[in-house]
Amino acid sequence: MAELTDAGLVKLARKGNQDAFAELVELYKDKVFHLAYRMLNNRHESEDIVQETFLRVYKNWDKYDENQKFSTWMYRIATNLCIDRLRKRKPNFSLDAELNDQDGTADGYSLIPGDNRTPESEFLISETQQIIHQAIAGLPAKYKTIMILRYLQELSLQEIGDILDMPVTTVKTRVHRGREFLRKRLEHKLF
Amino acid sequence: MECKQAASLMHDYLDNELPEEQALDLKSHLDKCVSCRTRLKELEQTDMLMFAAVKHSLPSAPDDVLNRIMSSLPKKRRQQAWLGWVKRHPALTAAAMFLLVMLFSTLSIWKSDDQLVVKGPDLDKVRIEGHTVIVPEGTEIAGDLTVENGNTEVYGEVKGNLTVIDGSLYQASTAKIAGDAKTIDQALDWIWYRITNTFTEVAYR
Ligand SMILES: [Zn+2]
């Protein structure tokens, strides 16, 4: 089964083949987990997101368009679930929050595995990484999701646009601004 | 070229989206502008550090997540179970045919009234707004919930099956439905639903 492409696995899984579905989960569970973890900074909630994402994939096969990449569709489900959670935490949360809306200030601290912080996990994170993680956490909401998708999953601008349902020109502008934001955050610390 | 335009081209370059011609323009600007050279170097370093660091030190999904997902998948459809049951009990197929005929009368009145009907335990916990039935966050419905002729929004927990007949179903991310969540909007589905339900009832009597 390992040689099957995504498309092949998806075809089988849609027909109800449980092994193929399990294989898809294996292939993508860590990626979804990482995406959720970066967005929510909470291990427990990220596990929930992984579970919920695949459950929705399973229940909504009839809504999946085979011309679309499976990963795009899946990330879209996962991203929406994460945004849902963020909204619940902060009812006024908006993907389009303005740049001066310092969404990340609180997150900056919780970003090192917040809920189960142990001396060991803190020890494993170097100072450089902390600076980088804080820079990401400090990104305004408007740019955060896009930059996480960009750096974590190495997706093209077009794919990010498809996932977030945004025109590619908007994604492009936000990647550029997000990158500038991060550069300024790292400027005097790492360069 | 002005530095501002150069900056925009730098980003295109980092996105692998800079056409060759413009790349040459950018290069000639960089050759004479120190501050833009520094900026490009910093931007490149930002990308490099991000790609490397974002993945590093992330915990991976717990090992049992696959099992949890696989065991949480909804069970195979009940109508298939019903078909299997008919195959194992061929003598009763005639009875099933009789039921089918009987159910056509149900079908004819189906859609004739569009009154909202909600069936289930704990109905005092359910909120009804117009034609929308809401299971609010933090509430638990102890068993099966059936909504006919209305939209359903679930934010809380349903401990049994959820069936929405001729209406839409919205499940928030907080929603937990222990059994099958099903929407039925077609006459045919409706017949299946009545048959399987009748049989389940008969079988347990
Ligand atoms: Zn310049």
Could you characterize the architecture of this molecule?
The complex is a heterodimer of chains A (191) and B (205). Chain A has 191 residues and is an all-alpha fold. Chain A folds into 2 domains: 1-93, Orthogonal Bundle (Rna Polymerase Sigma Factor, Chain: A), CATH 1.10.1740.10; 124-190, Winged helix-like DNA-binding domain superfamily/Winged helix DNA-binding domain (Arc Repressor Mutant, subunit A, Orthogonal Bundle), CATH 1.10.10. Chain A has 10 helices and no strands. In chain A, helix 2 packs across helix 4 (70-89) and helix 7 packs antiparallel against helix 10. Chain A is globular. In chain A, 37% of the residues are buried. Chain B has 205 residues and is of the alpha/beta class. Among the domains of chain B are: 3-57; 117-187, no CATH class. Chain B has 7 helices and 11 strands. Chain B has helices at 3-14, 20-32, 34-55, 65-72, 78-88, 93-109, 187-204, and strands at 117-119, 127-129, 132-135, 140-141, 145-148, 151-154, 157-158, 162-165, 169-171, 176-177, 181-184. Chain B has a 4-stranded mixed β-sheet with strand order 1-5-8-11, with helices on one face. Residues 108-112 and 201-205 of chain B have low confidence and may be disordered. Chain A binds chain B through residues 16, 18, 21-22, 25-26, 29-30, 32-34, 37-38, 43, 46-47, 50-52, 54-55, 58-59, 81, 84-85, 88, 113, 124-125, 128-129, 132-133, 136, 147-148, 151-152, 154, 157, 172, 175-176, 179-180, 182-183, 186-187, 190-191, and chain B through 8, 11, 14-15, 17, 39, 41-43, 45-47, 49-51, 53-62, 65-66, 68-70, 72-74, 76, 172-174, 181. Zinc ion (ZN) binds at residues 3, 6, 29, 33, 35-36 of chain B.
